[in-house]
Amino acid sequence: MTNFEEILKCIGANHIYIQTHNFPDPDAIASAYGIQQLLKYKNIESTICYSGTIDRSSTNKMISQLGIEIVNMDDICTINSKDMIILVDGQKGNANIINIPGVEIICIDHHKTYKKEKTNYLFSDIRPEVGACASIIADYFYENKIEISKNLATAFMFAIKVDTANMSRGVSDLDLEMFYKLYKLCDRDFIKSLEMNTIQFDDLHAYVNAISSIKVYRNISFANTGAECPEPLIATISDFMLALDEVNLSVVYSEKKDGIRLSIRSTKRYDAGLITNKALLGIGNGGGHELMAGGFVPPQQGIDTNTLISDLEKRFIDTVYELYGAQLD
């Protein structure tokens, strides 16, 4: 029995919600779109939903041009506690997944599981070794011999390229296989246009803030993008900082209304997901892949922001020392 057939066994409704992580990126959106098209093939209606905002112009262009319908939870008033939910590119209990009414029956993700609490998914397909969640969903189509449309192939391909940094980071055999299978099906000119429009004029302020604030301790860098920086841009700047020859672990953060958002990138020397999860234990939460991770720390009672940021930096340094010792030199 294929994974998609297992998924169908769990669904007992004519309509289902497909929830991405908050502030969805191309991988989350393409993965949700893929699941939606699979369910449509079996005459099951679905709604792709998210919380937060979609800030990047290239992501919004991908959504509009490829005809992807995705709805903010603020605009949904009909969901109730009995509705079924499929989580994609995220897991229940993570800081970047808002808890909405309904029952999370299925989870499809490519991030490590750090929560010790047992989940009650009816079906889960969680593969941390895979670079893009879209690769997992695309493979469902090939497993079940279901045709992939040009628009969907384009969404999958763009997602794979973004999450693997153009096939240079965390690439698995499955990512490679899906890349080559999707290559002839997708609109490569459209993907090129998306890739050439990833930076907006206002983003330059965040780069200036990060560059002017960067601190490097041995081979760990810390940088502040300034307040209310969009999550995807924090991640992009973390990638940018990791390009420094002296840096093997990049920690970039932004103070938001609800707390501090962090994006962490690493070379193969360190496990970014493990370090982030351990460093934020007790004050927030985080995790991700070996080479890329994210985290969130809510306001701490009685601690001002500057003190909290200093504590965060110390936590990351201490965690790397504890896990890797001499490798910090």
Write structural notes for this entry:
The chain is α/β, with parallel strands linked by helices and 329 residues long. The protein has two domains: 3-195, inorganic pyrophosphatase (n-terminal core) (Alpha-Beta Complex); 205-328, Roll (Diaminopimelate Epimerase, Chain A, domain 1). The chain is 39% helix and 19% strand. It has eleven helices and twelve strands. The strands form two sheets. A six-stranded parallel beta sheet has the order 3-2-1-4-5-6. Strands 7-8-9-10-12-11 form a six-stranded mixed beta sheet, with helices on both faces. Helix 2 (26-41) runs parallel beside helix 4 (133-143), helix 8 (203-213) crosses helix 9 (231-242) and helix 10 packs across helix 11.
Tell me the fraction of residues in β-strands, as a range: 15-25%
**Unreliable segments of 5+ consecutive residues:** none
Mean pLDDT: 93
Query: Which sheet architecture does the biggest sheet show?
Result: 6 strands, parallel
Task: Tell me the name of the CATH homologous superfamily of the largest domain.
Answer: inorganic pyrophosphatase (n-terminal core)
In short:
With 329 residues, the chain is α/β, with parallel strands linked by helices.
List its traits.
329 residues, alpha/beta, Diaminopimelate Epimerase, Chain A, domain 1, 2 domains, six-stranded mixed beta sheet
